Amino acid sequence: MTMDLIFYSIVFLYGLIIGSFLNVCIYRIPKGEDLAKKRSHCMRCEYQLKWYDLIPLFSWICLGGRCRKCKEKISIQYPLIELTNGLLYLIVVAVKGFTLVSLIYCLMASALLVLAIIDFRTYEIPFGINLFLLTLGLLHVGLDYRNWLTYLIGPFTVGLFLWLLIIITKGKAMGGGDMKLMAACGLLLGWQSIILAFLIGCILASVIHLIRMKITHVSHVLAFGPYLAVGIFISALFGENIIQAYLSYLGI
User: How far is 68 from 237, CA to CA, in rounded Å?
Assistant: First the structure.
């Protein structure tokens, strides 16, 4: 029990640390800025943050959510992303255990988190993130090579359907980023799980966006990426159980 607690604490801390980098990605990728060379700084006074200003979660709390120098408010997004990423890592390890697959799924969760925020704000899914997810898919196939065909079919199930939908509607119904996302994650999850992920994403989008339209009067145009990201994460961790339960219900 003690060793498990230590391991989970380490996983959570790593999640917080990676979450701090995710904030950099969320801010800089849409602007096309370099992720590594430019130092973190205050958006208002350009104060370059010291190492003690960059301790995930705790620095924001200690500073009261304000810049050390000019006292400008620091967006609550920063600690929320760090905390969310830490919790996602804990969930992955709790479900999948301490395995290489868990490592791949943790990296997947981080990529999906960045993708979801960027798409929600800009209605665009960065190609680099889809490429990163595709790379994770190739690694997953290598670890589970006996089931390679399941993964190889994955990119063509939902991905091909969305490609045809884009052609038929001339891009009005779906963005190319969504198609590439489902193709990349189709390789990562396999054909059955990616179909489930797509269905979950569609259901969430239908319900949540309709509620948002009713309450906040947002446009009918929605960023589909965040809902697909949630569907992918759920399907990655629980897809096999959900599919088996559904098949058992049908008596198959």
Answer: 40
Q: For residue range 45-58, what is the model confidence (pLDDT) as tens digits?
A: 877 877 677 788 88
Please write down the long-range contacts of 134-137, taking CB distance under 8 Å and 24 or more positions apart.
134/183, 134/184, 134/187, 134/188, 136/104, 136/107, 136/108, 136/111, 136/188, 137/184, 137/185, 137/186, 137/187, 137/188
- Top-confidence residue, 201 or 2: 201
| Residue 209, helix vs strand vs coil | helix
Token pair for 49: 């943050």
Number of helices (H), then strands (E), belonging to the chain: the values are: 9, 0
Whether the Cβ atoms of residue 110 and residue 22 lie closer than 8 Å to each other: yes
Best mean pLDDT range from 62-66, 97-101, 173-177 = 97-101
The pLDDT, as a whole number, for residue 75 is 87
Query: What one-letter code names the amino acid at 127?
Result: F
Alpha carbon distance 19, 199 (integer Å): 28
Mean pLDDT of the chain: 91
Q: What is the pLDDT of residue 71?
A: 79
Alpha carbons 251 and 200: distance in angstroms, whole number: 22
Burial track 180-191 (b if 16+ CB lie within 10 A, e otherwise) = bbbbbbbbbbbb
The answer to whether 175 and 125 are in contact (CB under 8 A) is yes
